[in-house]
């Protein structure tokens, strides 16, 4: 069947009140960016529905793109028919015939959004169902569990027919909830946290801490590849801020007792990320922390670490089991990358017995013996910012100007 359009359903956007049009506009922008490779398409959007007019473009490839766009609850390849019953019946017959296999069952599900249409939903169901039974040998009706569910949506401008409902990514459209900085390590958790934050409409910029020569270029490449996956889900590009962290980490190792180095390291990372957030005009910081998973993720550790900022810290994974996080990582295709055996700065210099219940007073006392501020500011000044796009080589933010 040659579909001429794809019907997009909003889901959560439909619960918005006066601001709904702003969310629709954001979703339309996301769809347009994702479908840039298809120049002939046209996007039509209203408060209730969005349509992608194919105009001869490859519908199968477009469907693959739409599956990953946040803000889409579901979508259906569809055909547009005039609001005339004979035309509707013939188009329905052609559509169902193109999908029907011997022995299959069907049902007709009509939705009359325009109540001025001559027939009500039961009459539409009966008229189309009777036409299909008369003209397709062997087909039977099953209203509970049909093989083919013909959806008939009657609207003011036309009638739309579809037989397939494809699940979308859900959530809210990209960039509809503001900007936040994602603390991106090379592990399994933080890319999943970034994905879940983007699903709630956040625009993310990633911050990665790089400690050469203790961490290798392979570790850096690993994070760039993770960023590419996130950029793909974002529907365009994301910025990756790579922070030179060697001097800060060595100072912590020399000045802070071993069992408190992990706590102090996380505090310094948070301070630096917050400085980058201010420069980039972000409103929050995202981490991949899951309560109790490791020593730095106990409630006592979070309490001691959070002291260095008043910025909201978003933890999408806070109550999730590791197995659930791994499952999502596999689904979004980051698990294999995260499992590459290249250490990041979170895994080097790990003390044999890190403090699981650190005290704020003690970590403040240990840090007071050394002025970390110049090292923090130097690290912020020397940040390397890359613009990451899917399946393309990263380039510096500065090169974008040219």
TrEMBL record:
<dbReference type="InterPro" id="IPR054173">
    <property type="entry name" value="ThiI_fer"/>
</dbReference>
<keyword id="KW-0820">tRNA-binding</keyword>
<dbReference type="GO" id="GO:0004810">
    <property type="term" value="F:CCA tRNA nucleotidyltransferase activity"/>
</dbReference>
<dbReference type="InterPro" id="IPR004114">
    <property type="entry name" value="THUMP_dom"/>
</dbReference>
<keyword id="KW-0694">RNA-binding</keyword>
<dbReference type="InterPro" id="IPR049961">
    <property type="entry name" value="ThiI_N"/>
</dbReference>
<dbReference type="GO" id="GO:0005524">
    <property type="term" value="F:ATP binding"/>
</dbReference>
<feature type="binding site">
    <location>
        <position position="288"/>
    </location>
    <ligand>
        <name>ATP</name>
    </ligand>
</feature>
<dbReference type="Pfam" id="PF22025">
    <property type="entry name" value="ThiI_fer"/>
</dbReference>
<dbReference type="InterPro" id="IPR049962">
    <property type="entry name" value="THUMP_ThiI"/>
</dbReference>
<dbReference type="InterPro" id="IPR014729">
    <property type="entry name" value="Rossmann-like_a/b/a_fold"/>
</dbReference>
<dbReference type="InterPro" id="IPR050102">
    <property type="entry name" value="tRNA_sulfurtransferase_ThiI"/>
</dbReference>
<dbReference type="InterPro" id="IPR020536">
    <property type="entry name" value="ThiI_AANH"/>
</dbReference>
<dbReference type="Pfam" id="PF02568">
    <property type="entry name" value="ThiI"/>
</dbReference>
<comment type="similarity">
    <text>Belongs to the ThiI family.</text>
</comment>
<dbReference type="GO" id="GO:0140741">
    <property type="term" value="F:tRNA-uracil-4 sulfurtransferase activity"/>
</dbReference>
<keyword id="KW-0784">Thiamine biosynthesis</keyword>
<feature type="binding site">
    <location>
        <begin position="183"/>
        <end position="184"/>
    </location>
    <ligand>
        <name>ATP</name>
    </ligand>
</feature>
<dbReference type="GO" id="GO:0005829">
    <property type="term" value="C:cytosol"/>
</dbReference>
<feature type="binding site">
    <location>
        <position position="297"/>
    </location>
    <ligand>
        <name>ATP</name>
    </ligand>
</feature>
<dbReference type="GO" id="GO:0000049">
    <property type="term" value="F:tRNA binding"/>
</dbReference>
<dbReference type="GO" id="GO:0009229">
    <property type="term" value="P:thiamine diphosphate biosynthetic process"/>
</dbReference>
<feature type="binding site">
    <location>
        <position position="266"/>
    </location>
    <ligand>
        <name>ATP</name>
    </ligand>
</feature>
<feature type="binding site">
    <location>
        <begin position="208"/>
        <end position="209"/>
    </location>
    <ligand>
        <name>ATP</name>
    </ligand>
</feature>
<protein>
    <recommendedName>
        <fullName>Probable tRNA sulfurtransferase</fullName>
        <ecNumber>2.8.1.4</ecNumber>
    </recommendedName>
</protein>
<dbReference type="GO" id="GO:0002937">
    <property type="term" value="P:tRNA 4-thiouridine biosynthesis"/>
</dbReference>
<comment type="function">
    <text>Catalyzes the ATP-dependent transfer of a sulfur to tRNA to produce 4-thiouridine in position 8 of tRNAs, which functions as a near-UV photosensor. Also catalyzes the transfer of sulfur to the sulfur carrier protein ThiS, forming ThiS-thiocarboxylate. This is a step in the synthesis of thiazole, in the thiamine biosynthesis pathway. The sulfur is donated as persulfide by IscS.</text>
</comment>
<keyword id="KW-0547">Nucleotide-binding</keyword>
<keyword id="KW-0808">Transferase</keyword>
<keyword id="KW-0963">Cytoplasm</keyword>
<dbReference type="InterPro" id="IPR003720">
    <property type="entry name" value="tRNA_STrfase"/>
</dbReference>
<keyword id="KW-0067">ATP-binding</keyword>
<comment type="pathway">
    <text>Cofactor biosynthesis; thiamine diphosphate biosynthesis.</text>
</comment>
<dbReference type="Pfam" id="PF02926">
    <property type="entry name" value="THUMP"/>
</dbReference>
<dbReference type="GO" id="GO:0052837">
    <property type="term" value="P:thiazole biosynthetic process"/>
</dbReference>
<dbReference type="GO" id="GO:0009228">
    <property type="term" value="P:thiamine biosynthetic process"/>
</dbReference>
<feature type="domain" description="THUMP">
    <location>
        <begin position="60"/>
        <end position="165"/>
    </location>
</feature>
């Amino acid at each position: 069947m040659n579909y001429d359009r794809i019907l997009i359903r909003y889901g959560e956007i439909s619960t918005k009140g006066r601001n709904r049009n702003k969310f629709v506009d954001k979703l339309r922008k996301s769809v347009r960016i994702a479908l840039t490779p298809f120049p002939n398409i046209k996007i039509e959007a209203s408060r209730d529905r969005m349509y992608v007019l194919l105009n001869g473009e490859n519908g199968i490839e477009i469907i693959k793109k739409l599956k990953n766009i946040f803000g889409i609850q579901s979508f259906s390849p569809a055909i547009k028919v005039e609001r005339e019953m004979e035309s509707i019946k013939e188009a329905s017959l052609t559509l169902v015939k193109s999908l029907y296999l011997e022995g299959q069952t069907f049902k007709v599900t009509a939705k009359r959004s325009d109540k001025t249409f001559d027939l009500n939903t039961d009459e539409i169901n009966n008229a189309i169902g009777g036409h299909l039974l008369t003209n397709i040998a062997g087909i039977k009706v099953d209203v509970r569990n049909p093989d083919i569910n013909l959806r008939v949506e009657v609207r003011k401008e036309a009638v739309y027919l579809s037989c397939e409902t494809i699940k979308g990514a859900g959530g809210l459209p990209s960039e509809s909830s503001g900007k936040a900085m994602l603390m991106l390590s090379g592990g399994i958790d933080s890319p999943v946290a970034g994905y879940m934050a983007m699903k709630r409409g956040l625009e993310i910029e990633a911050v990665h801490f790089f400690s050469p020569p203790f961490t290798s270029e392979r570790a850096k490449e690993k994070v760039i590849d993770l960023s590419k996956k996130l950029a793909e889900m974002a529907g365009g590009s994301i910025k990756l801020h790579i922070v030179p962290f060697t001097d800060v980490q060595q100072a912590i190792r020399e000045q802070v007792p071993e069992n408190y180095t992990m706590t102090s390291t996380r505090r310094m990372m948070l301070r630096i990320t917050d400085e980058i957030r201010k420069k980039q005009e972000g409103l929050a910081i995202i981490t991949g922390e899951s309560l109790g998973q490791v020593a730095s993720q106990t409630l006592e550790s979070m309490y001691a670490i959070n002291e260095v900022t008043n910025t909201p810290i978003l933890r999408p994974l806070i109550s999730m089991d590791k197995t659930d996080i791994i499952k999502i990582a596999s689904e979004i295709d980051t698990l294999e990358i995260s499992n590459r055996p290249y250490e990041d700065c979170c895994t080097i210099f790990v003390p044999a017995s890190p403090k699981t219940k650190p005290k704020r007073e003690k970590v403040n006392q240990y840090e007071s013996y050394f002025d970390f501020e110049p090292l923090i500011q130097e690290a912020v000044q020397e940040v390397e910012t890359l613009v990451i796009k899917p399946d393309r080589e990263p380039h510096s933010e500065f090169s974008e100007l040219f």
